[in-house]
Write a structure and sequence with these properties.
206 residues
């Protein structure tokens, strides 16, 4: 494999490392959990060290190391959303973004290993791939835990206000009229009219 081709492969991986450094650093600024903030900060530092190792090999093979890594570039290559939108993300959503970024990183390392790399370059790429895979698996496990925690929360849904009870209908009287009406009936509702003062008129049912 020509040196220029080796340099191209290495610079592509340097760009990948810068994407990870940018993504983890941005996530650390917005995540709410202190444990996740520490983890993301450590992962950003790991990505920076990996880029520095690759840059040394680029110089060794006569190339110029890629400065790489930008917000738009990282987003295009599968890393986290633009920094301004992360402020509204939950920790679970942030972990999902980081897992997607690590998926992209692992894929690019595997693609690099398909090339006929010199032995020393292959050894470094394989070691860094193992680190990227560990990062991915750890982030994925934390994301799964976050999902389970969300699903385990009791869902207290507001209950609709109960409808007012319908007024109870009076029970219809059965049998002889309670007021000695001259026409006893079945199933008639007694009605008691208010007599005029001094009146002796009886109340009749209707």
């Amino acid at each position: 494999m020509k040196n220029d081709d080796v340099v191209d492969v290495l610079n592509d991986l340097i760009e990948t490392c810068h994407d990870g450094q940018y993504g983890f650093s941005s996530s650390a600024e917005h995540v709410k959990s202190n444990d996740l903030r520490l983890l993301f900060t450590q992962r950003a530092a790991d990505c920076q060290r990996a880029a520095e190792e690759l840059q040394g090999l680029v110089v060794e093979y006569g190339g110029k190391p890629d400065d790489g890594g930008s917000a738009s570039g990282a987003m295009h290559r599968g890393w986290v959303s633009v920094k301004g939108t992360l402020a509204g993300y939950s920790d679970k959503a942030m972990l999902e973004e980081c897992e997607r970024g690590e998926d992209a990183a692992v894929a690019r390392y595997r693609k690099a290993l398909k090339e006929e790399l010199p032995a020393n370059v292959r050894a470094l790429v394989e070691r860094q791939l193992m680190g990227a895979q560990r990062n991915h698996d750890q982030v994925k496990a934390l994301r799964d835990q976050a999902r389970q925690a969300v699903y385990a929360l009791p869902q207290h849904l507001p209950q609709p206000p109960s409808a007012p009870a319908a007024p109870r209908r009076p029970v219809l009287a059965k049998g002889p009229c309670a007021f000695s009406c001259p026409h006893p009936t079945e199933n008639r509702r007694p009605v008691i009219p208010m007599p005029r003062p001094g009146s002796r008129r009886k109340a009749w049912c209707t």
